[in-house]
Amino acid sequence: MDQVIGAVINEYRFLKVLGTGSMAEQQSKLFKSVYHVQDVNSQVNYAIKVYTCPASDIRCHNEAKILEKLSHSNIITLYKNLQMKFKGDSGEIITMDCLVLEYLEKGDLFEFIAKTGNFGESLCRYYFKQLTQVVDFMHGQGFVHRNLKLESILLDRKFNLKLCNFACASYLNKYKDGKLKTKVGTKNYQAPEVLYGAIYDGVKADVFSLGVILFIMYKGQPPFSKANQQDALYNLIIQENHKQFWEIHSQKMEFSFDFKELFLGMVNPNPEKRFNIEGVKNSKWFGGVSKTIQDAYEEMINREKYILKV
């Protein structure tokens, strides 16, 4: 579909590729591409997510239905759910499911951290509070995300976060006991019970992923590769050898007691003992001082300038 750039399909001119990816539970196949487009009539910019595999239409409709029910300043806006006709590589016409979404020009948090380094404590807390509040809202509306990661956190022009990628999301009451069984998500962020393929509590799985996001924002590196016994770092958490875990991670920076307490509570191997959202919000670290909106904006502007230079 490389030839789509510059083309006008329906009323949208396709300007550039923003990203491509696979459904999180089927990493071997390309399932979606996201494009920056412009409405040729209104000149308004949008992002269009094209589900490029027929087998992914269920996920497309799932994402659309959930986004239609979630209206929040920190959740990406869905404008349309439609089908478009594209010319395939062999010249054939292919009908694909598409979502017309809010265009968020600043990219995602992953890019900012990967290219400019970890966030200081006050900036980290500023974004973590936004993220926790929107996830709490989503849970309160009866949904779990199941693919929380830095790449699922986009930034608007004022550097407020916008949660996206709801293709793996689910209704909390899908099953009578509220538990879920489909293994979805991104392995680096998956809770151990999801990684093992067990039946799981979607809320507690989301909290685990939030804990991994928090750590990466704070240090600039992941706390472990996978949440299983084969991962040396996570195995230290399983064995409750927290002292050695923090000694390894503290070689280049220090972690406060309050941060350690919050992080370990969020990534506890036992979901029954793991923090819930209220536990996160009531923690001492969460209640600490955050950047002001203006200070956060100015720091992110400076980080953006650095990215544009390199």
UniProtKB/TrEMBL annotation:
State which Enzyme Commission number(s) the record gives: 2.7.11.1
GO MF annotation list: ATP binding; protein serine/threonine kinase activity
> Which branch of life, at top level?
Eukaryota
Q: Which residues form the Protein kinase domain?
A: 12-286
Question: Which top-level enzyme class is recorded in the Swiss-Prot or TrEMBL entry?
Answer: transferase
Q: Which GO terms describe its biological process?
A: signal transduction
| InterPro entries listed in its UniProt record | Kinase-like_dom_sf, Prot_kinase_dom
Q: Which UniProt keywords apply?
A: ATP-binding, Kinase, Nucleotide-binding, Serine/threonine-protein kinase, Transferase
Q: Which reaction does it catalyse?
A: L-seryl-[protein] + ATP = O-phospho-L-seryl-[protein] + ADP + H(+); L-threonyl-[protein] + ATP = O-phospho-L-threonyl-[protein] + ADP + H(+)
* The protein's name in its UniProt record: non-specific serine/threonine protein kinase
**Source lineage:** Eukaryota, Sar, Alveolata, Ciliophora, Intramacronucleata
